[in-house]
Design a protein that fits this description.
Helices cover 36% and strands 34% of the residues. The protein is α/β, with parallel strands linked by helices and 130 residues long. The protein has one domain (7-128). InterPro entries: MJ1673-like_dom.
């Protein structure tokens, strides 16, 4: 029986950096990196408590259940309620939920009476939710 190749699903609203892709391949042995379909990505990126909150999350779970297997990686970051719910559900369904641990550096630029703050986020490593 052929073992399924490990996949990762990106459930967040950013693009992976080259270092992140490299880590997924080398550290997690991922062979395929997948995104949510556009409709589901829009649901994840634009969560509204007023419109189909629970139904939209269930659609995302249904997609995962139909397309991913035990021990596949799910990179989850976003709305706190959705994230908590999907992490808990992923663990219960023997998937491996992870997040990107980042370090933030802030640059302040003073222009007269205005101070601009620019934040730079740098990926350090993926961490399993536990």
């Amino acid at each position: 029986m052929k073992k399924k190749e490990k996949k990762v699903l990106l459930v967040f609203s950013h693009q992976l950096t080259e270092n992140q892709k490299k880590e997924l391949v080398e550290e997690y042995k991922v062979k395929e990196i997948k995104n949510l379909p556009e409709e589901l990505q829009n649901m994840w990126s634009n969560v509204s408590i007023k419109k189909n909150y629970k139904e939209n999350l269930e659609k995302i779970k249904k997609f995962i259940k139909e397309n991913f297997n035990k021990d596949d990686i799910i990179l989850i970051q976003g709305n706190w309620g959705y994230t908590y719910n999907l992490v808990k559900w992923s663990i219960e369904n023997e998937l491996i939920p992870v997040y990107s641990y980042t370090e933030r550096n802030v640059e302040e630029i003073k222009e007269g009476e205005i101070v601009k703050k620019i934040s730079y986020f740098e990926h350090v490593k993926f961490v399993k939710y536990e």
